[in-house]
Amino acid sequence: MSLLNPKNLDLHLLRCLQTLIAEAHVTRAAERLDMTQPAMSVVLSKLRTLYGDPLLVRTEKGMVPTPRALEVATQVRAALLLIEQSIGSTGSFDPLSGTAHFRMIASESVILPFVPLLVARLRVEAPAVTVSVQAPDLTRARQDLEEGDADFVLAFVRAAFEGLRSLPLFKQRLVVIAAGNHPDIRGRLTLEQYTRYPHACYVVGRGGTSMIEARVDEALAGVGARRSIATWLPSALSSPAVIAASDLIATVPERVAHMFAGQLGLQVLEPPLHLPDIEIAMYWHERLHNSAAHRWMRETMRATAERLEKGERS
Q1: Which end of the chain is less crowded, N or C, counting CB atoms within 10 A of the terminal residue's CB?
Q2: What range does the domain containing 138 cover?
Q3: Which of 11, 21, 33 is nearest to 74 (CA)?
Q4: Mean local confidence (pLDDT), 149-166
Q5: 17-41 as b/e: b if 16+ CB within 10 A
Q6: What is the mean pLDDT of residues 242-257?
Q7: What percent of the chain has pLDDT over 90?
Q8: CA 236/CA 272 separation, integer angstroms
């Protein structure tokens, strides 16, 4: 049976098929496409009939794609990329009447200061434009952009992703937080205190080191010092509550620190050594570079980031 037989498959079914195979889980695939689980189950049943193959089979470890499904996934991915490219490569985009959905990958410390401003702007300038944001796995970021699983990656990347376009957005200045009633730290922080008191650290995914923590360790190594770590957390936004209830300290983006300082009674302290700013950029794939909607969104994000930076300086 032809993969793109218009009598049997439409664009929606193709997207469902790609997502089902990528997630290998009906419920997660449904959530990713903003569908109900029963509706996605109906789609899977229809796809199994069309392809004459179970596509996903249940095992002790969960659903697993069949060899036919993996073969189909490659073809579907290529077809969807071609369709997106052909639709988006010409013309213009009217934000007041146009519809579009953009998928972004960003950490919570990037989302917190930036995405609220972006969404507020979209509600006024482009009410039919929607966004979804996923937690980062920077080891897959380039692949996600290449395969069409994301439209943007917002991140600090030490070495730019090869083959991707990028544009700087804003900087994250790093500060240290400590409990307001810390037994030893009072308003200022020495290097001796910074290395003596254990840290709460943010890890990416399953044990991956965040760029913030990498910067801290490099700066300490540069002055011949080391720190101890008492807690590893899955999000930079987890740190403030842990810090407020203990004698631990943490190095976090300044915007994050000030958002929680008043609520949790935190001290926001200057680091006792030089920590370079974290420069956040947006990355996208060449296939979307000429898309009118994508161009408009890039400019909107750039202008939003400029407002974020200017608002803090004013």
Answers
A1: C
A2: 100-170+279-313
A3: 21
A4: 82
A5: bbbbbbbbbbebbbebbebeeeebe
A6: 96
A7: 54
A8: 20
